[in-house]
Amino acid sequence: MHLTQLATQLHVRGAIVDPEPVGQTLRRLLTDPVDLAADVEEWLSIRGPKLPPAVSHLVGQTFRIAPDRTEVRALLGEVGESARTARTRCRKLGLPPPAGWLRVARAVHAALCLQRAPATPLLEAAMRLGYSDHSALSHQLLRLFGVRTEIVRRNLGWEWMLDAWLVRWSTCVAAPRGRGHPGV
User: Fold this and answer.
1) pTM for this structure?
2) Domains located in the chain, CATH noted
């Protein structure tokens, strides 16, 4: 009981018990978060940049409903935010625009699905996730995270991908926009 209380205080997301196969347990825990949106908000508060509540809420809502949306205006309307206000808030904080957050949220959801079922053919997964084909999904992951689908399948979790995207985005902001820009 003491370990459970300690784990709760430390915000431990999962624990491995002796008889459980480690690989399967880690795959389950790291690829099927209970509340990805809340996890992303918490992770950003630790990693930075520190987001004001309105922007944190917008990012969280984006991750919450991204798998079902492809248009940023529809998403923003659903969360009660005007496109102009959302873009301005993000720009003032030096953050990616709402469209960038939507693209990365969809890609993170897709990546977690690929990690959860690594044997699923890429075309099948892409079609189920709303991409036009396997190439569209593959290019999206490469453009945003700088890695190919086989790397995404092999490395569990989403934090490393979101970190890579933020680093790539901040690096490219100073550079002129071009082919190598990570999906903003």
Assistant:
1) 0.83
2) 21-174 (1.10.10.60)
